[in-house]
Amino acid sequence: MHTQLLAPSVIGTKVNPSNCPTADQFGLLAGHAGLITTEYSYGKDEEIYGEDEPAEYVYQIIRGAVRTYKLLSDGRRQIGAFHLAGDVFGLELGKSHRLAAEAIIDTTVRLVKRRSLEQAAGTDVSVARKLWTMTAGDLRHAEDHMLLLGRKSAMERVANFLLEMDRRLAIAGLMALPMCRRDIGDYLGLTLETVSRALSQLHSEGVLGFSGARQIVLRDRQRLRSMDA
Amino acid sequence: MHTQLLAPSVIGTKVNPSNCPTADQFGLLAGHAGLITTEYSYGKDEEIYGEDEPAEYVYQIIRGAVRTYKLLSDGRRQIGAFHLAGDVFGLELGKSHRLAAEAIIDTTVRLVKRRSLEQAAGTDVSVARKLWTMTAGDLRHAEDHMLLLGRKSAMERVANFLLEMDRRLAIAGLMALPMCRRDIGDYLGLTLETVSRALSQLHSEGVLGFSGARQIVLRDRQRLRSMDA
DNA sequence: CGTCGCTTTGATCTAAATCAAGTTGAGTGG
DNA sequence: CCACTCAACTTGATTTAGATCAAAGCGACG
């Protein structure tokens, strides 16, 4: 999860046209001329793929943000991860996607045919290892998130979320969250009201500042870390 | 998680001595003479490895049962998975184990040096693929478990647990659970009392029968499936 | 500058946690 | 073989964190 194939400095900058075999944005996967990549854009809330849909492509976010999630029949939703610029998502070993994916905001992705990746992995051990590394990264995130969902309090979950997002998308100390309170709740196993109340409390305690509901400045990361269980 | 390298029929039967290069219990990893395997036994509640301890070995359960878990500083525990006979656990890509492991009951494992597995993976793409497959299996389980922990009710969690254990360890319709109610609670993100109450209710509804607290017979799997959200 | 979706805040409810006894039964030693 | 013991389990009473229900703010966008 959140595996960065792009060097951080490349995020948000102009990228080379796709299909360019000399481009190195695809990290260890670069230089494999057999990898066919294309670009595609999705509008806000547009589905990228559904749960259990055949997994034909692997995706890397050029700009935007994506949520991957599972639904129960009555509409309850668990978001497994948020994916930001540079992140790869949709990598599967089995036939189909086990979580659905939607664009949180307007999003542009690079697509790689899964078949071409597998072929590259079959001939180049470093590619195979890179794929394993990406899956292992997703597993690490999921293991941490199980602890959060099973055993942490609402405030601990929200503190953890803020520190995660601070690490992943803060620019010059400002966090511009792409997702709404309901998304955050569905990621943390809480309701949107509980998320809002926790944020309000942290605001009143001076731990964070708002400039609009989704622009957050962390003012006391140490305090936040002490709250994350 | 729960990846079966052993054919089901082999589980619980006598296994060949380790270090035997012709043994096929190690599934796709067989035939790699470079794989050094040894056996080791752990008593009930004995630690196999701790969280963040260097990951030197990969383990396969010959007989017994293991829990892998994370702890918070105040003692709250989240069990990530239960591992039963035939299952492989402790496979890591990074330097260290991200969950601790303990024997639930007296347990014998086969150990494989992680270094030797990596070496085999470097020369044989089918081994590399098998390792990726095992990690991907663990990830699938974790993704399903996040939905359970984040969004399912107590009864839904217990129903899910019973169906999982029924599938994995029921013999002749009888489930002999190796773990206590507290372990089940820490796996499902519940207290042991809530687990006990859910089981009692299922018993009173005739969905299951007990012969001792840990010997369970499922009498209405269909009903249980309908309760699992 | 009005509208609608998002967010906040308040009041109330409830599922599960916590606190508290009992009960059971597997293992031990007499 | 029986009785004792102790951890595990069940069950009951009460509490509570977070959910749910409800009503304002607010702010981005047309």
Provide a quick synopsis of the model:
The first copy, chain A, has 229 residues and is of the alpha+beta class. Chain A has 6 helices and 11 strands.
**SSE pattern of chain A:** EEEEEEEEHHHEHHEEH
Our measurement of the CA-to-CA distance between the termini of chain A, rounded to an integer number of angstroms, reads 22 Å
The neighbouring-strand order within the major sheet of chain A is 1-8-3-6
CATH topology of the largest domain in chain A: Jelly Rolls
Helix content of chain A: 25-40%
Shape of chain A: elongated
What summary fits the major beta sheet of chain A?
4 strands, antiparallel
Q: Which residues of chain A form runs of ≥5 with pLDDT under 50? A: 1-25
Q: For the record, what is the CATH homologous superfamily label of the largest domain in chain A?
A: Jelly Rolls
Strand content of chain A: 15-25%
Class from helix and strand fractions of chain A = alpha+beta
Tally of structural domains of chain A: 2
Treating each run of at least 4 consecutive H or I residues as one helix, how many helices of chain A?
A: 6
CATH architecture classification name of the largest domain in chain A: Sandwich
Walk me through what this model shows:
The structure is a homodimer of 229-residue chains. Chain A is of the alpha+beta class. Chain A has two domains: 4-150, Jelly Rolls (Sandwich); 153-228, Arc Repressor Mutant, subunit A, CATH 1.10.10.10. Chain A contains six helices and eleven strands. In chain A, the strands form three sheets. Chain A has a four-stranded antiparallel β-sheet with strand order 1-8-3-6. A four-stranded antiparallel β-sheet of chain A has the order 2-7-4-5. The first copy, chain A, is elongated. Residues 1-25 of chain A have low confidence and may be disordered. The interface between A and B is large, with 40 and 40 residues. Chain A binds a DNA duplex (30 and 30 nucleotides) through residues 153-154, 180-182, 190-194, 196-197, 199-200, 212-214.
